[in-house]
Amino acid sequence: MNILNLISRSMGALLVLICISLPTQAADDDTLTIAYNVNLPSWDPTVGLSAVNPTIQSIYKSVFDQYIDQNPDLSFKPGLLTDWSWSDDKTSISMTLRENAFWHDGTPVTVEDVMWSLERAGNPDTGNPIQFIWGKVGEMTADGNTITAQMAGYDPSLFPWMAFLTGYILPKNYFEKVGAEGFEKAPMGSGPYMLDAFERDGFVRLKRFDQYWGDAPAFETVIFKFVTDASSRVAEIESGSSDITIEVPYEQFDRLAAVDGINGVSTPVSDIGMIFLNDIEVMEDANVRKAAAHAINKPVIVDRLLRGYGVPIDTLQAPEYMAYDDSIKVAYDPELASELLAKSGYSKDNPAKFKIQTTRGFKPKDYEMVQAIVGMWRKIGIEAEIEVYEIAKHYELRASDTLAPAAFYNWGNSIGDPSTSTGFAMFGPSPHSTWDTEDVDGMIGPLWGEADEAKRIDGYKKVDAYIAENAYVIPLLQYVQPILHREGISVTPHVANFVLPQLVTKQ
Amino acid sequence: MSLKQFLQRLLLALPTLFGVSLVVFFLMRVVPGDPIAMMTPPGATEADVAQLRALYGLDKPIITQYVIWLGALFQGDLGTSISLRQDVFSLILERMPATLELAFLSTMIAIALCLILSLAGAYFRDRIIPRAVDAIASTAQAVPDFLWGLIFILLLGVAWPLFPISGRINPRLDHDLVSQFYLFESLIKLDFSLALELLRHLLLPAIALALPMTGIVTRLLKVSLEETWKQDYITMARARGFSRWYILRKEALRNALIPTVTLGGVQLTFLLGGTVLIEKLFSYPGIGNMAIGAVIQRDLPLIQGLILTFAVMFIVINLLIDLSYSWLNPRMRHG
Fold first, then answer.
1. CB-based contact, B93 to chain A, within 8 Å
2. Contact assignment for B86 to A184 by CB distance below 8 Å
3. Domains of chain A by range and CATH?
4. Which position has the higher pLDDT, B325 or B254?
5. pTM over cut 0.90
6. A135-145 pLDDT, tens per residue?
7. CATH class label, B94-334
8. How many angstroms separate the CA atoms of A138 and A159, rounded?
């Protein structure tokens, strides 16, 4: 039994050694540690599944530069491009590259890098999920730092997309030298931070890039720790192991924000909670749809379930979006809802029946919200059966247009363009729409290529008003992002739901 | 176990693995969730979706996909991860050492605790200690590993912050480790400060994983020791004047271990399964944590590769258990 004795004694000695060893994670004023809610699957921000994952963009935006950048209020500002415009005849675009930008190896960012990045993004073989936008960029020529590109068609959302998913410029020469696999192992960008160490599913450590063209970030070192479990993130900030964390339950946010040494900031972000309606079964009856919309008391849901961390909304445009129209209202009116149902022969004794699908735990209180809504509906004569599914199932059903008559979902749109909210969510031919009727398609269709921006925005406002009037979708609320941070630092929240280390300062 | 028997067991593992591959492959394609639907951007046309599907080889009939996958598998190619866009085999090789180190330390802790508790329980018979051992073992067994993890995080990570509660290594540390076996390599290189740092990260998840196994195995070993104590050869040893402690360690323990090892082997497979939740809770970068991400993303090649890896590990554990019988019981060696 010598081996077993050895094991017992070794384990005993080990425990003693570990217990007497001092903690190694001492406070460091020049290092910012963020307990982050998702892992970083891939370092290439332009291809694959992770490229269209909005939650990863904070890390990408720390290392890479976008063509165009966004202020915390979603307004656009120069990124690596200082100027951008469509030609008067809308057949070409012009882009000017800033002169003082460098890659992390010290070589300058060139127009060749920009043109190569756009060509690569538009090439269907590379697997860029937004190829349908980048593929419209045709032949490019450069004159000094200005690039002119012929366009396959006018798309008013092209430049907003340059600040959105996959809109990053990568280093041509370096990428061609190391290849895609080499780039995954040693990525290089031109952003405010450069990669220092990366442990997959563990952490990423970034170092400040001294040649960055913009303002120098406050912290020399930034660590994103991948802590995907919400209770573990709470423990990270509470124990002082991390300086910032996000996506914690609202109850915990309220509790910890009141704790000495921890502060909380929250801001409404570009993420909408909504109920998709499908044009099947009882949802083809306008009275049922309208009754379902009027029966939901959104402020009560926000106050009681989300502890006030949400903004009730009645359209798919949040107040920060370009086409937001505060005159569009869908009032909470259960009496009107009952009357509408009665017109179609429904009542509490003879309720309208349908299924509503929802995730459980994917978004804060998603299932609980649907439960509350089903309770409100029951009071007016709607009997909804709840079906819980995973988010992967939702995507599958939505892509095949086989969602239930009602389905809870959240829709993000960090560039605030109406085409990427109402447009894609409600236009029938889009793989992400659920309501497919000619009247809405007829209104949205002409707006895709509308060259007059004021007319385009006004057009979307009219679409939103029409949709609200006919209850083709039920927008519920704009989410609020809770951010917890230690005392001594200041965090500027970003409406696009980013937590950018370059927006964190020392107090 | 003779060499011939060992080789026979190895050969028998092949149809098991084939069965696992078959079930996993077809099961993953009938469960809800389409990876392509998840990565389809707004505005993509049906042609774009079809192109993406073709890019990942998901446009072919399931049987054809399986044949292609199996053919590649025989050449050591587990495919390319959809979400991570890297070779699945390399990804698993990169991450498995972290899980193996965690499982190894958990097992060592469980063995040490089992021995200490059961020997103490058997030695101090008719006194308060056996009851205390039973209570400890029952509690360790009754509380699931993830709950132990949460308790440790709250007690030793937050209330009394002695241990790190996430990750495998302090992100601020630079190291020159070349393998993914961080702990073993640091010990081989005699870098004890790094080894201690790694152990500080490993300890809480390892104990959380070890406790349920400790509970159930301790109870069995203690009972087994008590039964063994009634055997004639033990009476003989007592008559010869050997001390109680000596007899327990030198005479009774080896025989009492035989039934315990079988149960321990089964528990070890549970322990490996438990790494999935524990790694997630402690943000520990092993294959368990990777498996959760793969399932959420419906990363079919990665899920298939990970389940096959777990199956191989289970088979290897069972083989080792069989081999340990021979070591513990010489009659089986010569039978």
1. no
2. yes
3. 49-180 (3.90.76.10), 268-480 (3.10.105.10)
4. B254
5. no
6. 999 999 999 99
7. mainly alpha
8. 15
